[in-house]
Amino acid sequence: MISAEHDQLKQGAARLSVLSNTIMVIAKVIVGILSGSVSIMSEAVHSGIDLIAAGIAWYSVRESGKPADNEHPFGHGKIENVAGTVEALLIFGAALYIIMEAARKLATGRVEVEHLGIGAAIMAASSVANYLISRRLLTVAAKTDSVALEADALHLRTDVYTSAGVLAGLMAIKLTGITLLDPLVAIVVAFMIIKAAYDLTTKSFFHILDVKLPPEEEAVILGVMAEHADQYLEYHKLRTRKSGHIRHIDMHLVVAKQMTVESGHALSHLISSDIQRRLAYSHILVHVEPCVNICADSKTCRRCNHPMEQ
Questions:
Q1: Is 121 helix (H, G, I), strand (E, B) or coil?
Q2: pLDDT-based confidence at 172, cuts 50/70/90?
Q3: With contact defined as beta carbons under 8 Å apart, do 295 and 307 qualify?
Q4: Within this chain, do residues 281 and 161 fall inside the same structural domain, yes or no?
Q5: Count of domains observed in the chain
Q6: d(CA 159, CA 289)
Q7: Is there a domain that residue 296 lies in?
Q8: DSSP, residue by residue, 60-97
Q9: 31 and 126 housed in the same domain
Q10: Is residue 189 domain-shared with residue 174, that is, in the same domain?
Q11: What is the number of other CB atoms lying within 10 angstroms of the CB of residue 189?
C-alpha cells in the first residue's frame, strides 16, 4: 500500500528530525546551565521530549511500511497512530514539569539570569531550524499521508513559537532588568505546549478508536457513488476508518437480480478504482447483493428496468 520511494522519504525525514533535535537538546542544555534561565531550560526539556518523539516517529514510520502478514492481516499502519498518541503524552508531561519548575522560581522570588546574549542566539537559531525541519516534515507527511510525521511536524512547529516566546522574554529581561519575566514566559510556553499536545491527541488517538474519515473525504466517496448511480440500485452500510496512512472503506452495493456475477464484480472494481484515484492508499471492499424487491404483475422491474426472470 506504500511505495518504496515514499517509504524512503518518510524514513529520511524522520532521521533528519532526530539529528536536528539532538543538536538542539545539547545546545539548549549547555546554555540553560550557563545562564540559569528556567525558560531556556524549559525549552531544553521540550527539545528533549522532541528528540524522544522524533525517535518514536522514526521507528513507527519504519514499522508501518511493512506489508501485512499473518499476525497483522490489516497491515501495521496503526503503529503511527500509537506513536502520535505517545508523543502527545510526552508533551503533556514536559509541560507539567515546566509549570512546576517555573512556579517554584516564582514562589521563592529568586531568579537569576545570565549570558542573555548566548541564550537569545540559541533561541533564534532554534526557531529558524525548527521551522525549516517542520516544513520539510509536513511536506513529506502530506505526500505520504503519514500520521507520525505530521504529529512530529506539528510538534516542531510549536517549538518555533515557544522558542520565539523565550527569545522575546530574554529580550524583555535585557531591556527591563525584571528577571521574574523568565518563569512567567516559561509558564506561557508550557500552555502552548499543552495546546499542541491536545491537537496531537485529536489527530492520533481517535483513529485508534476507528472513527470515520473526515467529512471532506467521505464527500469524495459519495461523489463517486453519485457518478455511477445509473449502474446500481442503491448502496448502504458505508463504513470508513483509517489505520496509519491506509483508508479502509467498505459498503453493500445493491444491483438488479439479473446482473451476472461477472458484471457485478466489474462494477465494484470500477467504483473501487475511482475512489482509489481520488483518495490515496484506500483499501476498499464492496459487497454486491441482489435486489430483494418483488415486482408483481409486471415483466420489467420498476426499480432497475431489467427484464424479470421467467
A1: helix
A2: confident
A3: no
A4: no
A5: 2
A6: 53
A7: no
A8: HHHHHTSPP-SS-TT-STHHHHHHHHHHHHHHHHHHHH
A9: yes
A10: yes
A11: 27
| 3-class state of residue 110 by DSSP | coil
Cell matching residue 180: 521574574
Is a pLDDT exceeding 70 seen at residue 1?
no
- CA dihedral 203→205→208→211, nearest 10 degrees, is -50
Q: Residue 281's domain is classified under what CATH number?
A: 3.30.70.1350
Same domain, 202 and 249: no
Q: 169 near 203, Cβ under 8 Å?
A: no
Range with the largest mean pLDDT of 71-85, 114-128, 165-179, 187-201: 187-201
Quick one: 220 and 151 in the same domain? Answer: no
Print burial letters for 116-133: b (CB count within 10 Å at least 16), e (below 16). Answer: bebbbebbeebbebbbeb
Lowest-pLDDT range, 77-81, 96-100, 153-157, 295-299?
Answer: 295-299
Give the model confidence (pLDDT) of 199-219 as tens digits: 777 766 766 777 888 899 999
3-state SS string for 28-50: HHHHHHHHCCHHHHHHHHHHHHH
18-32 average pLDDT score: 81
Give the three cell numbers for residue 191: 500552555
DSSP-based three-state secondary structure for 266: helix
Helix (H) or strand (E) holding 240: strand 234-243
C-alpha cell at 297: 404483475
Print the domain residue range for 276. 215-290
